[in-house]
């Protein structure tokens, strides 16, 4: 689970999960390496989809952000 945060004093973090597919059926675990192959074109798409977890309260209105870091090694 990751959290969206805001600078609003009354704003609580919003929990969410990252998925590899638009249907949000394939969760991407945090801090777990994934491997794959780079096609001959040398170009790779890394689609990410988020889904907010069920909330008890309605979040305060505002801008919420998170920073995702992707490290590519070869």
Could you report the average pLDDT, rounded to the nearest whole number? 89
Low-confidence runs (pLDDT<50, min 5 residues)? none
Multimerization state: single chain
Give me the strand/helix succession.
Answer: EEE
Our estimate of the beta-strand percent is 15-25%
Instruction: Decide which structural class fits the backbone.
Output: mainly beta
Number of strands: 3
Shape: elongated
Q: Main β-sheet: number of strands, strand sense, barrel status?
A: 3 strands, antiparallel
Strand order in the sheet with the most strands: 1-2-3
Percent of residues in helices comes to under 10%
Radius of gyration: 15 Å
How many DSSP helices? 0
The first-to-last residue Cα distance is 27 Å
From the structure above, extract its key features.
single chain, 74 residues, mainly beta, three-stranded antiparallel β-sheet
Description of the structure:
The protein has a three-stranded antiparallel β-sheet, with no helix packed on it. It is built from no helices and three strands. It has strands spanning 2-4, 14-19, 49-52. With 74 residues, it is mainly beta. The protein is elongated and about 50 Å long. 0% of the residues lie in helices and 18% in strands.
Short note summarizing the structure:
This protein is mainly beta and 74 residues long.
Describe the SSE topology.
Layout (H helix, E strand, L loop, with lengths): L1 E3 L9 E6 L29 E4 L22
Antiparallel strand pairs: 1-2, 2-3
């Amino acid at each position: 689970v990751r959290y969206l945060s805001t600078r609003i004093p009354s704003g609580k973090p919003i929990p969410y999960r990252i998925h590899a597919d638009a249907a949000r059926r394939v969760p991407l675990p945090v801090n777990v390496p994934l491997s794959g192959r780079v096609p001959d074109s040398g170009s790779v798409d890394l689609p990410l989809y988020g889904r907010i977890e069920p909330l008890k309260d309605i979040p305060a209105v505002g801008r919420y952000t998170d920073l995702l870091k992707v490290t590519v090694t070869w």
